[in-house]
Amino acid sequence: QALIDTKEWLDCQDSNQGRQTGGQPVEVQSSRRGSWCKPSRGWVKCNYDASHYEGVTPSGLGWIIRDSHGTCLECGMGKFQGRLTVEEAECTAFIWAIQATWALGYRHVEFEGDNASIVKLINEKGTNLRLQHYLNEIWQWRSKFTSMKVTFRHREKNGCAD
């Protein structure tokens, strides 16, 4: 896994060459193919994901924090009782990742997950009655960070947490 992560990081470095023009970043089209990309200097990136099973079957989660050099700083995994929906499981994994990141002292964090609907709800302060208590908790934690971004990446680019 270390070799795969290193190759992903090196590939990302190659694709980031020349991304700046006149001091402004150039937007690159996101595709399903590709690899993890490093966060901005001074930030860390926390990728998170959940494996979902309904009912009493345990679900799992994973998160990994890396710096702007791609170095793994911290990581963790856990299990919890299954949730009713995939979205509830993703929210649970995200809250766990937020709490771990905060407890480890990181305050400028980009969280990256592979559930587009959850990322959209979080960033747009959306409403979803089934998920509202999860969203409220996420927004409460968000306010504790100096800077926090929440971004979506396809599962293929979130393999380290998946």
Question: Can you describe this structure in just a few lines?
Answer:
By secondary structure, the protein is of the alpha/beta class. It has helices spanning 2-16, 86-103, 116-123, 132-142; strands spanning 20-21, 24-25, 44-51, 58-66, 72-81, 108-113, 147-152.
Mean pLDDT: 81
Distance N terminus to C terminus?
12 Å
- The proportion of residues forming helix, as a percent range, comes to 25-40%
The largest sheet is: 5 strands, mixed
How many H/I helices? 4
Form type:
globular
Question: Which consecutive residue ranges, at least 5 long each, have pLDDT under 50?
Answer: 15-32
**How many beta-strand elements?**
7
Structural class: alpha/beta
| Main sheet strand line-up | 5-4-3-6-7
| Strand percentage | 25-35%
Oligomer: single chain
Helices and strands, in N-to-C order?
HEEEEEHEHHE
Q: Please tell me how large the radius of gyration is.
A: 16 Å
Protein name: Ribonuclease H domain
GO molecular function: nucleic acid binding; RNA-DNA hybrid ribonuclease activity
Organism: Arabidopsis suecica
Notes on the protein architecture:
The chain is α/β, with parallel strands linked by helices and 162 residues long. The protein contains four helices and seven strands; from the N terminus they run αβββββαβααβ. It has helices at residues 2-16, 86-103, 116-123, 132-142, and strands spanning 20-21, 24-25, 44-51, 58-66, 72-81, 108-113, 147-152. It has a five-stranded mixed β-sheet with strand order 5-4-3-6-7. A two-stranded antiparallel sheet has the order 1-2. The longest helix has 18 residues, at 86-103. 30% of the residues are buried. The model is unreliable at 15-32 (pLDDT under 50).
